[in-house]
Structures are given as structure tokens and as C-alpha cells.
Design brief:
283 residues, alpha+beta, 11-stranded mixed beta sheet, 13 strands, 22% helix, globular, binds zinc ion
Length: 283
């Protein structure tokens, strides 16, 4: 990834501590969670005067990464405390047993995993993916940063699906609504890289209901280990649209049929690859 595009946030503060300047590369998700090797990145840069989306394509030699953290948070907090627990979770998630329930959801058996460390790592990814620092996220920053902090205050739920495509997608906070169906609207953000897809949301209802909600992992203690059984929908990611699952054609049909609107958060001129939506896949 070129320095120009990978580092649009010069002078910004670390997304976790808000104290030190950002430094180094933060892989999103972590490198150890299979986000490595040559990838092609396609992100929405903005909109032209005639409302077409403008897409920029970049190549990276080593996974998808951003400059989002200071050295201390990157190395001593995420790297030392959380990354190996998260990588183990992803490894086990990838080895799902192949059994499917009546709703088409695949069972995933996790043995002896660290729920608190995994969900702290997930919220840290959400914070890194946000193009701007938001004072409202202080509860989440404390939770991700402090070892013994349990989840409390202002936070979105965490929903899991199985990403069965070869494509990752990161969408920062936005609102997706269906005008024609009465299913309402959802404030969501998404961090998805095969095999783990994560949707953060303040609302429930479909399509989130069939996903596995694991927010209560935030109540576990740092050293707690557990066996966990999940049932997760198997979904393809090919389109930039948040909550757009299936082939590109299927997502376009959903948008037309349901009258889908996608409301973007305010983004600054230097918000970079994750300002609106990013897709990437092995090249
Ligand atoms: Zn920091």
C-alpha cells in the first residue's frame, strides 16, 4: 500500500489511548489472524458530481493495515495481551465441523478460548477502523485497553457470521435502512475477513438475529477460558455495501427490492481507506 494512502492520518492520535501519535502498521484484523500476503484493496474514496462512487485500487504486499495506533498500544497492549488469543479463536473458527442447523447456520465449536481477550480485540479493531476519533467511544477504549475492565457504559453489540468468500470488508460506523420493507434501520459497522465476519450494531432484528451475538463475552474475566458453541450464518462478501451479502448481483437486487439507503457518517477529507468502505482480497 502506498504511504500516501496508508497514512492519511498524520498528526492524529492513537485510537486506543488518544495520547501518543500513531506509529507503525496496525493490521486489521491482526496478521496472525491470516491477514497477510499480497492483497488488492478497493476502497470507496468519495462521490463524483454525478453521484457515481469513486473507487481507488491499491496493492499491498502484506495484508490490510492502517496507521491507527501508537507503538505502546500496538505492541504492548494488543500484540502482547490479545493477539495470540484472537489468532487461536480464528484458527478454531476456521475448523468448523461442517454441521449445519435448520436455519443453515454452521456450528462452530471453540475449545478453551479466552472470551474477554477475543472481544477486546474485536472492539479494538472497530476503534482502529473508525476514520475519526469520537469522544463517545471512551467506554470502549477503556474496555479494549485495560486488562481487567469489563464491558460497561456505551457500546454496540457484537454479532458474528462466517465469511465464506475470499474477500474482506471494513465499513466504519454508518446507518443502513430499508424503506420498503418495514424492517427498519440499523446503525452498524463491519470488520470482516474470512472466515470471521463481525457486525457491530446498536439494534437487533434481521439480518442480525440469525448471527451469533457474543457481547456478553465482555463480562468475562481476562484469564477466563471457556468452551463455546456458536451457530453462525454462512455469508458471502463481494460488495462494498454494509450488510450486503451474496454476489454483487444479489446485493444490487436487495438494494432495489428493499429500497435500501446507506447513510454515511461525516468523514473528514483525510479519512483514508476506511472512510466509507473497503474491500480486499488475496492477489
Ligand atoms: Zn496508544
Amino acid at each position: 500500500m502506498s504511504e500516501r494512502n496508508a497514512n492519511p492520518v498524520s498528526g492524529q492520535k492513537c485510537r486506543l489511548c488518544l495520547k501518543s501519535d500513531v506509529q507503525g502498521r496496525e493490521h486489521l484484523p491482526p496478521r496472525a489472524a491470516t491477514n497477510r500476503g499480497p492483497v488488492q484493496i478497493s476502497f470507496i474514496k468519495g462521490f463524483s458530481d454525478d453521484r457515481d462512487i469513486e473507487i481507488e485500487v491499491l496493492d499491498s504486499e502484506d495484508g490490510f493495515w492502517l496507521r491507527a495506533l501508537c507503538e505502546r498500544c500496538n505492541t504492548h497492549i494488543l500484540g502482547a495481551r490479545l493477539d495470540s488469543a484472537y489468532a487461536d479463536f480464528v484458527r478454531q473458527f476456521a475448523d468448523a465441523v461442517g454441521l449445519v442447523d435448520s436455519r443453515g447456520r454452521m456450528f462452530v465449536n471453540l475449545e478453551n478460548v479466552y472470551p474477554a481477550r477475543i472481544i477486546k480485540r474485536m472492539y479494538a479493531m472497530l476503534l482502529c477502523a473508525m476514520p475519526e476519533q469520537n469522544p463517545k467511544w471512551e467506554d470502549l477504549r477503556r474496555f479494549a485497553r485495560l486488562r481487567d475492565q469489563i464491558l460497561s457504559g456505551h457500546f454496540p453489540d457484537v454479532h458474528l457470521y462466517r465469511n465464506i468468500s475470499d474477500t474482506g470488508r471494513i465499513v466504519p460506523w454508518c446507518v443502513v435502512g430499508e424503506l420498503f420493507t418495514g424492517r427498519g434501520r440499523w446503525a452498524v459497522a463491519e470488520v470482516s475477513w474470512p472466515p470471521v465476519g463481525i457486525v457491530f450494531s446498536f439494534q437487533g432484528g434481521e439480518p442480525l438475529e440469525s448471527m451469533e451475538k457474543i457481547t456478553d463475552w465482555g463480562q468475562a474475566k481476562f484469564h477466563d477460558r471457556e468452551d463455546v458453541r456458536l451457530a453462525v450464518p454462512q455469508l458471502r462478501v463481494e460488495h462494498h455495501h454494509p450488510l450486503g451479502f451474496g454476489s454483487r448481483e444479489e446485493v444490487e437486487r436487495w438494494r432495489e427490492r428493499a429500497g435500501v439507503v446507506w447513510l454515511l457518517a461525516d468523514i473528514g477529507p483525510h479519512s483514508g481507506p476506511t472512510g466509507i468502505s473497503t474491500l480486499w482480497k488475496p492477489s
